[in-house]
Write a structure and sequence with these properties.
Helix content is about 30%, strand content about 15%. By secondary structure, the chain is α/β, with parallel strands linked by helices. The protein has one domain: Spore Coat Polysaccharide Biosynthesis Protein SpsA, Chain A (Alpha-Beta Complex).
Length: about 190
């Protein structure tokens, strides 16, 4: 726990995975489902409590299902906010970025305002405030898909984009297709 409340992690694992052709969250990474790897990564980085956005996971009360589905990451953030108190902070990360180092998460976790790395909307840190709740509520009620964009949320919150350490630049890679996944696995094997 921090002086400002708890630091929560949110693994976004509720997407359709349509380009992958299968549920990304269940892909095997180091012998365990990818969502478990991402949850462990957040824990290693010092997050107080890890939540997972999605459905069909057989784990405790960490699973949060979208209240308003179909709005992308905003749906997961919206649902998570129902569990958090003002003063907490929410570190949001997609399920399909397994190479992100714990150090990057720690850098974001140390920020006290809405923040992401330059060039990347995720991962991001969001202080839980009335302003955040209002911005997310407005976005989720919109019929315009542009309003679900995370960069717009950052903009509304006067968020910062901090420089990504150059040593981490090639680790911020999403796996959206089977080819992307094969490339990520090759990178991981090469590191070992």
């Amino acid at each position: 726990m921090t002086a400002h409340g708890a630091l929560y992690g949110l693994v976004l694992a509720g997407g359709r995975s349509s380009r992958m052709g299968q549920d990304k969250s269940q892909l095997s990474w180091d012998g365990k489902p990818l969502y478990r790897h991402m949850m462990s990564l957040l824990t290693q980085a010092g997050v107080d409590k890890v939540l997972i956005s999605g459905s069909g996971f057989s784990i405790d009360d960490s699973v949060i299902e979208d209240v308003v589905p179909g709005r992308g990451p905003i749906s997961g953030i919206h649902a998570a906010l129902k569990r958090l108190q003002d003063g907490d902070r929410l570190l949001v990360i997609p399920v399909d970025m397994p190479l992100v180092p714990a150090k990057a998460i720690q850098i974001l976790g140390g920020q006290q305002q809405a923040c992401c790395f330059k060039g990347f909307n995720l991962p991001m840190i969001l202080p839980v405030t009335i302003e955040l709740r209002q911005a997310v509520e407005t976005s989720i009620k919109s019929d315009n898909p542009r309003d679900y964009a995370l960069w717009r949320l950052q903009q509304q919150l006067d968020g910062q984009a901090i420089p990504l350490p150059s040593s981490m630049a090639d680790l911020f890679v999403n796996a959206n297709t089977p080819e992307d996944w094969r490339d990520l696995v090759k990178k991981e094997v090469a590191k070992k």
